[in-house]
Design a protein that fits this description.
The complex is a heterodimer. By secondary structure, chain A is an all-alpha fold. Chain A is 78% helix and 0% strand. Chain B contains 18 helices and 22 strands. Classes of the chains: A mainly alpha, B alpha/beta.
């Protein structure tokens, strides 16, 4: 177990180092100079030069990379070119919306998907299975922004149970959670549909395994065999998908954030790119990479917990 | 060891049991009686309905199967019981052991947990009591706690050890009936002998009735009190073991018996120069590093092996699983590099510059064990058996190609019209013929048979062995025959190499090795192999 952990940790650090280099290079070679963008097309060359030096853009590239990485290690993500405020504060503000939203959506999709997948697999070929499979087809096919608009039309405009958009802040946690509910549902549904299908097919594979027959021969009922022996084995591939979905939910919610007027991370990235606010883009992308890699690390650890065969090998 | 069977009411009475699925008959009016402490063997070829009978007793047949007749245990008809009542009987009154120990255990739970589960499902025992009993049962089946603690996971055990765990699960509550479905088929001969001893011992000491299902008559010949022979869902013959071997009435039983000890009639070996030279070959496998910065340790799977194989010679390579047979085979086929030593075929190395040598590949072909897994199901026979043509510099085309296909198919006893069929249209034995046709089509000098008949029924196996003998005579082929089955190796090879822990511990002429083995390992292998009694021998069984 120790060797497995160390190995994963080393891989994690290496991926982070490589990712930071790639992000820096890609953003640096992207066309558009932030200084001239900020000052407009009529700016004087010496004004631009002054701003460049103020923003730290005039030092050599490798020096800038080291400054950037060194800063991040001590929690200093630099200063936004456009807003002149620390990037870490901006990101932290947005993260307080995006992270709870992603977690809510993920919990919701898992809570829906695992029972639905188990139901479909255990009633394979029957009505319940057909129903679940049709629902997942729809869930995968419906674009989530359209589904979000339907939710707004029904629950916000017609029934007035939820606000149609905006975020009141965490001063009143109940209100904040209510504001995040519809976006979380809109995000969760397509994810739940995918996850249900993975859960179903994984469990169907497991139900055909020899050890399930052994369990029945011991005197376990079908249901007992399924919960005690089937589920844990079937969850192993599902964990992978959950890990991938979390990363997607954290950053990929731009459209949903747009529909609900939520100031989340996705919108921050979008705005920063259009304003050539490179330092914000770099930092947010790095943060997302960090989140993805960390989540994968956690998924790897859960694998080892779920599957004893991984603890010694790998 | 013979017990007197009490003539009281039998423990299990299967009475004119029939089963069918979509009006296709699976079991046809079978009747078997098993008394307490009695071992009854159910034998026959695959598809004869042996496992179906076992599953019917367990009440685990698929839902679509219609069952008729009676299965009475202590006078109670199991077929009339509800699913809940059957759940109470399974595991408590009837235990079952399956064929595949490698997959019969849940990989993510400890062995102690899995044995204790049988106890906890049926009794109100606390977790610690159940685990204590599990420890007792595991010790009883030969897995003492000091070496096999309850916290072990299945992947940490060998096949034989896992089968002991499965047996422990089945006997944890001292069921009165134990059903063992091919319990030793996937195991090595020495392990098989140990597991059979264990089952016999359990039946004697615990008074357990055992229904033993096997395709191998030799396995049950000195163990079963009674043998029932099944064919296409019917019991064609049923008698006490001694009587059955003394006086077989049904021709099918006689067929099975003859096929099990079939001797293929091989041509005399020709004296010829060496074809394959294996010169002090060792092969290593890298092992996982103990910690991330350590040097990668290596496992030596093959140690300093040397032998030669002459043109037209049939050589057997025997040993138990994990002895390095497969690693050596891969090296001979040029599929992997040797760590030290060289392998030459006709004087040229089989592996050079990081690749298998194509000149050698043209002359060495291989036939694998699994006739189902070794063909792409979406290709027609025509395409499947011409796959080796890509090794030729100028593969035949048009009419020449068609006649090569027709020749290869008729050589292996199939018809040229079969070329346009898909593999699923063929039985296991016919597929193995296809595999041989595929090997034969480019006229190799050496064919490697890697457990090529191990998955086949005895009668089919006998036919394939005859086919191999005929082809050998016709084309002067050399064979390297890799198998864990000693009887097959004995009937078809001129010379045998015995491998243990990566080394060849004994080699010599086949008959000489079987008559007077010198190495203790060879002796134990031969002693462990089950033997069929002579027909009509009154001392049989």
């Amino acid at each position: 177990m120790f060797a497995y952990l160390t190995k994963r940790l080393i891989a994690l650090c290496l991926s982070l180092a490589i990712a930071s280099l790639v992000i820096f290079l890609v953003v640096e070679v992207a066309p558009g100079d932030p200084a001239s963008y900020m000052l407009g097309i009529n700016a004087q060359p010496d004004t631009i030069a002054a701003l460049r030096s103020e923003l730290g853009l005039d030092v050599p590239k490798h020096q800038r990379y080291l400054n950037w990485v060194g800063g991040m290690l001590v929690g200093d993500f630099g200063t936004s070119y456009t807003y002149r405020s620390p990037v870490s504060d901006m990101v932290a503000d947005r993260l307080w919306i995006s992270l709870p939203l992603a977690i809510m959506a993920l919990c919701l999709s898992t809570i829906i998907a695992i029972p639905a997948g188990v139901l479909a697999a255990s009633r394979r070929g029957k009505m319940a299975d057909a129903g679940v499979m049709t629902a997942t087809q729809l869930g995968v096919a419906i674009p989530n922004f359209w589904f979000a608009m339907l939710l707004v039309a029904l629950f916000a405009i017609k029934l007035r149970w939820f606000p149609s958009g905006g975020f009141p802040g965490w001063d009143n946690p109940v209100k904040a959670l209510i504001a995040l509910t519809l976006p979380a549902v809109a995000l969760a549904l397509p994810q739940a549909a995918i996850l249900t299908r993975v859960m179903r097919s994984s469990l169907i594979d497991i139900l055909g395994e020899d050890f399930m027959r052994t369990a029945r021969a011991k005197g376990l009922t079908r249901r007992q065999a399924l919960w005690r022996h089937g589920l844990r084995n079937a969850l192993i591939p599902v964990l992978t998908i959950i890990g991938l979905q979390f990363s997607f939910l954290l950053a990929g919610a731009i459209i949903i954030e747009q529909v609900f007027y939520l100031p989340g991370l996705g919108r921050l990235v979008f705005q920063s790119i259009s304003q050539r606010d490179l330092i914000v883009v770099e930092s947010v992308v790095m943060l997302l990479v960090f989140a993805v890699i960390t989540v994968n690390f956690i998924v790897d650890l859960t694998y080892a917990l779920a599957d004893p065969r991984l603890r010694r090998s790998a | 060891m013979k017990r007197t069977t009490t003539e009281t009411q039998p423990l299990l009475e299967i009475d004119t049991l029939s089963a069918s699925i979509h009006s296709k008959t699976l079991l046809d009016q079978i009747s078997i009686q098993i008394s307490a402490g009695e071992i009854v063997a159910l034998t026959g070829e695959s598809g004869s309905g042996k496992s179906m009978t076992a599953l019917a007793v367990m009440g685990l047949l698929p839902n679509q199967v219609d069952v008729d007749g009676g299965i009475r245990m202590d006078g109670q008809d199991l077929l009339t019981l509800s699913e809940t009542e059957m759940c109470d009987i399974r595991g408590r009154d009837i235990g079952m052991v399956f064929q595949e120990p490698m997959t019969a255990l849940n990989p993510v739970r400890t062995i102690g947990d899995q044995v204790a589960e049988t106890i906890r499902v049926h009794t109100k025992a606390s977790r610690s009591d159940a685990l204590a009993r599990a420890a007792e049962v595991l010790t009883r089946v030969g897995l003492p706690q000091d070496r096999f603690p309850l916290g072990r996971y299945p992947h940490e055990l060998s096949g034989g050890q896992r089968q002991r765990v499965v047996i422990a699960m089945a006997i944890a509550l001292r069921p009165r009936l134990l059903i063992a479905d091919e319990p030793t088929t996937a195991l090595d001969v020495t392990t098989q002998a140990q597991i059979l001893d264990l089952l016999r011992d359990l039946s004697q000491t615990e008074g357990m009735a055992v229904m033993m299902i096997t395709h191998d008559l030799a396995v049950v010949s000195d163990m079963a009190d009674k043998i029932a022979v099944m064919k296409s869902g019917e019991i064609v013959e049923q008698a006490p073991t001694r009587q059955l071997f003394a006086n077989m009435t049904h021709p099918y039983t006689r067929d099975l018996f003859e096929a099990s000890r079939h001797q293929a009639n091989m041509p005399d070996p020709i004296k010829a120069p060496a074809l394959l030279q294996v010169q002090s070959v060792s092969c290593d496998y890298p092992l996982p590093r103990p910690h991330p910065f350590a040097k990668r340790p290596a496992f030596r799977a093959v140690r300093d092996v040397s032998f030669e194989l002459q043109e037209g010679e049939r050589v057997g390579l025997v040993g138990e699983s994990g002895c390095g047979k497969s690693t050596l085979t891969r090296a001979i086929l040029g599929l992997s590099e040797t760590t030290t030593g060289t392998i030459l075929f006709d004087g040229t190395p089989v592996f050079s510059h990081g690749h298998p040598n194509p000149d050698v590949q043209r002359q060495v072909q291989v036939v694998f064990q699994d006739p189902y897994g070794s063909f792409n199901p979406r290709h027609r026979v025509r395409r499947l058996i011409t796959e080796p043509f890509h090794l030729l510099p100028n593969p035949p085309t048009g009419a020449a190609r068609d006649s090569a296909i027709a020749k290869a198919l008729s050589d292996v006893g199939l018809s040229p019209e079969d070329a346009d069929k898909f593999p699923h249209a063929f039985s296991g034995g016919q597929r193995q013929r296809l595999a041989i046709a595929r090997a034969l089509i480019i006229r190799p000098k050496l064919i490697v048979f890697d457990e090529a008949v191990s998955a086949l029924d005895v009668r089919v196996r006998a036919q394939i062995l005859d086919l191999m003998a005929g082809l050998c005579r016709q084309y002067g082929l050399a064979y390297l025959f890799i198998s864990h089955d000693l009887s097959v190796v004995r009937s078809i090879t001129d010379r045998v190499l015995v491998m243990q822990r990566g080394e060849i511990v004994e080699q010599g002429a086949t008959e000489q090795i079987f008559q007077s083995p010198t190495h203790t390992y060879t002796q134990s292998l031969i002693a462990a192999a089950p033997q069929l009694p002579e027909l009509g021998d009154p001392n049989a069984a």
